[in-house]
Design a protein that fits this description.
Distance between the termini: 67 Å
Number of helices: 12
Helix content: over 70%
Shape: globular
Largest sheet: none
Strand content: under 5%
Radius of gyration: 19 Å
Order of helices and strands: HHHHHHHHHHHH
């Protein structure tokens, strides 16, 4: 057992338990950048560990009733076979160092999209609070079958190749397709559909990837208690601050994986640290203005 990897798994599990996001998006770059694991091996082992960890979060949301069964079903129709096929895509990219290089670039792009997913999820929470004031509880969601299956296919393929996307990337796509979906239902739906998705990708990597038993065992030993601790703390800890830190970490990891120098990585993170809070304040003010009683009256007048 590698104690360093186990502690990393513990930390990532806590973040996943508290925020519902960041599993593959954090663990895979940690394995590549800090532990020197080859990208394909990191993807394979992280997916198998995630297949063990994900059901814990999904079970919590199923008990709370924050899962849209129709969306889960049609997402899985596309994502499960696409995730299994992802390992063959990774292998087809080229032999030896070439495949590792391509997977590293794909991982960097996926991490940038995952960081965007965290920002979108936070904005969604603000929007939901404003919408509850103006229009009350949203009505039932009508499932758009073909677009939902396509989201599953693309998301599953990305997860199969990079291990990133079962949380952050698919949440962004669902947000675009179903803007009326409440934030807690969005997270719960995504976590539950991620269970068969990650299991499919993990099975393919077990059979045809570069799975390492010792590495995966170390991850599981840390991630399982981590996700349970995170779920316990989720109602008390400042999850918003954790998401901000996670967004910065994902962006820094992505730019580094894409070949940026340390100076460029530092500049990107510094710019985000300065611009991000300003943009957040502007967004909050606009949503609060939209939620005011006067805004609600104006909307009713326009509708009439």
């Amino acid at each position: 057992m590698d104690l360093g990897v186990t502690l990393a798994g513990l930390g990532v599990g806590i973040v996943v338990g508290m925020t519902g996001m960041g599993g593959g998006a954090l663990m895979t770059p940690l394995l590549v950048l800090f532990f020197g694991i080859a990208p394909l091996s990191a993807v394979s082992s992280d997916l198998v560990a995630s297949a063990v960890m994900k059901p814990f979060g999904g079970a919590v949301h199923l008990r709370r009733g924050t899962v849209h069964g129709g969306l889960v079903r049609w997402l899985c129709v596309g994502s499960v076979p696409a995730a299994f096929a992802g390992v063959f895509v990774a292998r087809a990219l080229g032999p030896g160092e070439r495949v590792q290089e391509v997977i590293q670039i794909a991982l960097g792009v996926a991490l940038l999209l995952a960081a965007f997913g965290l920002v979108a999820k936070a904005y969604l929470g603000l929007r939901d609070r404003a919408r509850e004031v103006v229009v009350g509880t949203p009505g039932p969601i009508r499932v758009r079958i073909i677009p939902t299956v396509l989201v599953g296919i693309v998301g599953g393929l990305v997860v199969g190749v990079t291990s990133v996307g079962s949380g952050s990337l698919i949440i962004v796509a669902l947000l675009a397709l179903y803007p009326a979906l409440r934030a807690n239902d969005l997270v719960g739906t995504d976590l539950v559909q991620a269970v068969p998705l990650v299991a499919s990708a993990a099975l393919a990597h077990l059979l045809f990837g570069d799975f390492q038993l010792a590495l995966t065992t170390s991850l599981v030993l840390g991630s399982i208690p981590g996700v349970l601790i995170g779920a316990t703390l989720s109602s008390r800890a400042p999850a918003g601050i954790i998401r901000v830190a996670l967004t910065l970490v994902l962006t820094a990891s992505a730019t580094k994986l894409l070949g940026a120098s340390n100076a460029v990585v530092g500049l990107v993170v510094a710019a985000m640290a300065v611009i991000g809070p300003v943009a957040w304040i502007v967004a909050r003010r606009r949503l609060r203005r939209a939620a005011s009683p006067r805004s609600a009256e104006e909307e009713l007048q326009r509708a009439g």
